[in-house]
Amino acid sequence: MNTATIPEAEISTAPAEAGAQLSLFRRLLRNPVAVVSMAWLALLILTSIFSPLLAPHDPNLASLQDVLANPSAAHPLGADSAGRDVLSRLLFAGRYSIAGALLTVVVSLVIGVVSGLVAGYFGGWFDTIASWTSGLLMALPGIVALLAARAVIGPSMWWAMAIFGVLISPAFFRLVYASVAAVRDELYVDAARVAGLSDTRIIARHILTVVRAPVIIQAAMVAGIAIAIQAGLEFLGLGDTTKPTWGEMLNDGFANIYSSPMLMLWPSLVIGVTSIALTLLGNAMRDVLERSGSASRSNSKTPMPTVSAEPVVTHGDADRSAEELLSVEHLTVLYDPPGGRQVIVVKDVALNVRRGEVHGLIGESGSGKTQTAWAIMRLLPEGARTTGTITFEGQDLSTVSPRQMQRVRGRKIAYVPQEPMSNLDASFTIGHQLVEPMRLCLGISRQEARRRALDLLARVGIPNPELTFRAYPHEVSGGMAQRVLIAGAISCDPDLLIADEPTTALDVTVQAEVLELLRDLQKELNMGMILVTHNFGVVADLCDTVSVMRLGRIVETGPVMDIFANPTHEYTRSLFDAILDEETSRGPLENDTTDEGVPA
Amino acid sequence: MTTLLNCRDVVVEYPGKGFRKPPFRALKGVSLDIRPGETVGLVGESGSGKTTLGRAVLGLAPVTGGSIEFEGRDIAHLARRARRALASKIQVVFQDPYTSLNPSLTIERILTEPLTVRNVGSAEARKRVKDLLDQVRLPTDAGTRLPREFSGGQRQRIAIARALALDPVLIVCDEPVSALDLSTQARVLDLFREIQDRTGVAYLFISHDLTVVRHLSHRVAVMYQGEIVEWGDGDQVTAHPQHPYTKRLFLAAPVPDPVRQAERRAARKAFAKSDAGAAVAG
């Protein structure tokens, strides 16, 4: 949530963004790959429908004079080994190939989507059976099953395609199942349930909308596979030889490949292009629906806009004796995606941290406090541009090379994130994640790093360091994980610790302990510290100085004691006013005369 | 009738994960009652079972023991269909305003969703949406827009409007302000109170924040490890806690005042060293 959200007060009256309502089809028309694919498929469908009108000959009319005839006015693409017109057969074959592919899609769609919805939404015994069946079908070799079916049922293209539909239905089942399972526990589905909606209504309103797009994409892919499989079966001679199909034409062409190689060309061209068109169309739909466009890169051509300086309420500096550790001046952070809207998230920020001082950076979401912290560490995501100077121990961090910066981070500047769990790699033990950075940063041996890591774990208050050292992140609680990250942050003895909402994700009793730990470590190591938070209680607990941020700017800064005693800026005051005071409570329900049944 | 909702020895068990694992007991016999028009605050930390109790009242958690009586009738073991009939009486506002609204539906469709159950005509439904948006202080033209166009506080107002759509007598509020900014939080809390004063709806107000709960609740229950450890009038429980765990919770919350926070910190340390503190240490 570090992007700017609409402020509470600013409610525009603009109608809903048209883009959201724009249909899939209209958006596809803007994608050249999709347009070409759709044009080919449309052409194919139209020529197949109107093949009786378009075809110069009856596709099954054999003519002995024309056996393997070369292209001529009578036979534009020549004739096959039975003297049948290749163009006519190609046109008529489209009907069977497309209808066969459609049959496969419909069969697999119906089986896969219905069972996926039921299994995903209701779970229970049906889920178990359906998942097992789906796994079984996927393990079954498709061609072997189709061969067996042919042996029993006989050469029927329709049956083969329908059976193939059953065989490929897990493709839909698994997709739908996964999507449904993902939304089934969404709060809005719970809210609908509480609102009294029936299950069918919930599925229709909330679940189908989620499943719709991926199913359409999958259908295009399955159609492509079905056409290829069908051609494969016919090519092997396992199809129904009475009907013209592309695969059967391929078979005929293959038999005469030496005498008339062109016979192979036309059906393989049609099969190939159609399969590719369906796959590309599926991909294009995925791109359009999931908006996986080009990543936003910085548009460095446009000049940086000048950000005007605004007065900052500054309270008297309490202690000028300590050495200045970090000095940020005129820091501005801008996101400038090409074709997108320019957003300035940090505006002309100035910040000073002395050695051994804890500086709080407080503000509401979207105020730019995290962006400021990331800018100092130069960890802003791609697409961000910064100006201003960041002087750390006499060195301007905004000009050093990325390589040098890497050396500063971790060794000199350490970081404690908000979400402890997502900042530990689930596939490595906690010990490994502590030891490796220390070996790299401090250049010490594995044994030495291990000994240090155990000391650190003990230092951050972990009751059984040996056990935690060997544990994986999912085996420890959120509070423990945050202690581990703090241990990692201080492992290389940094001069500056940047903690970004380090206790927001934690329970209040755990928060108190972690704050206590940070306080002790900061004193012990005499670190400078930047504490990003939205909680005035946390600032009061830990900070020496504080800066209040609003819409990318620092509006008030100074020693904590002064600002809490005498907030001057209008915005700081409004924040203090919003704090719920601890004295007033609501008291018991009025006009409540029947004071009975209050269990002790 | 003086009690609206009466929970008696409610037990909620989730089946164990894995073969023959014992079930997980999220609630170990919880008793609590709510009167019409009253706010009962439910405080606890993650894993204490406070959300589970709310979900049990809503019929979203499996109640395996005890009873939940609503207007004199046991609702803990109702069939799906019978449960749906209760929808107009008990509603919910969830914690996360980002996932509690379907991102692909317009605000109008979100707000009319509960109304469709009652077969309200479309013209009347539209009128009702305007009325609801007005009640939660959002512009009446907000209906045509999508959730992503609104800030967290505004989304939570939309979620409140949805809860109000069927004129409920009880709303379960599950951490409704903890995802919101400070200034927004205060305004949304005021809105909750104002709606209660006007409509006489009762709240089961779940939060981890003692200050928020105190602000809104007539009575407060403190939950710890699936049980209610303290239960009584809001000012008593939140200002003069008796149970060691409530004391610990109270002392852990930082005060936004450097001087008083220093005192509280000292008190917290002293308490942690005492026997009572050691008994409930995390």
Low-confidence stretches of chain B: none
Residues in helices of chain A, as a percent range: 40-55%
Strands ordered across the widest β-sheet of chain B: 6-7-8-3-9-10
In whole angstroms, how far apart are the ends of chain B? 41 Å
Q: What is the third-level CATH name, the topology of the domain at 1-89 and 169-181 and 196-240 in chain B? A: Rossmann fold
Please summarize the sheet with the most strands of chain A. 7 strands, mixed
Strand order of the largest sheet of chain A: 1-11-10-4-9-8-7
Structural class per helix/strand content of chain A?
A: alpha/beta
Secondary structure layout plus pairing:
The complex is a heterodimer of chains A (600) and B (282).
Chain A: H1 18-21, H2 24-28, H3 32-49, H4 51-54, H5 86-122, H6 124-139, H7 142-153, H8 157-184, H9 187-194, H10 199-235, H11 246-255, H12 262-290, E1 313-314, E2 324-335, E3 343-354, E4 358-362, H13 369-377, E5 384-392, E6 395-396, H14 402-411, E7 413-416, H15 430-442, H16 446-459, H17 465-470, H18 478-490, E8 496-500, H19 508-525, E9 528-533, H20 536-542, E10 545-550, E11 553-559, H21 560-565, H22 570-578
Parallel strand pairs in A: 1-11, 4-9, 4-10, 7-8, 8-9
Antiparallel strand pairs in A: 2-3, 2-5, 5-6, 10-11
Chain B: E1 5-14, E2 24-34, E3 39-43, H1 50-58, E4 63-70, E5 73-74, H2 80-85, E6 90-93, H3 107-117, H4 122-135, H5 152-164, E7 170-174, H6 182-199, E8 202-207, H7 210-216, E9 219-224, E10 227-233, H8 234-239, H9 244-252, H10 258-273, H11 275-279
Parallel strand pairs in B: 3-8, 3-9, 6-7, 7-8
Antiparallel strand pairs in B: 1-2, 1-4, 4-5, 9-10
Description:
The complex is a heterodimer of chains A (600) and B (282). In chain A, helix 10 packs parallel to helix 11 (246-255). Chain A is α/β, with parallel strands linked by helices and 600 residues long. Helix content of chain A is 52%, strand content 12%. Residues 1-21, 292-296 and 592-600 of chain A have low confidence and may be disordered. Among the domains of chain B are: 1-89 and 169-181 and 196-240, P-loop containing nucleotide triphosphate hydrolases (Rossmann fold, 3-Layer(aba) Sandwich); 243-282, no CATH class. In chain B, the strands form two sheets. Chain B has a six-stranded mixed beta sheet with strand order 6-7-8-3-9-10, sandwiched between helices. Chain B is 40% helix and 23% strand. Chain B contains eleven helices and ten strands. At the A-B interface, helix 9, helix 10, helix 19, helix 20 and helix 21 of A face helix 2, strand 6, helix 3, helix 5 and helix 6 of B.
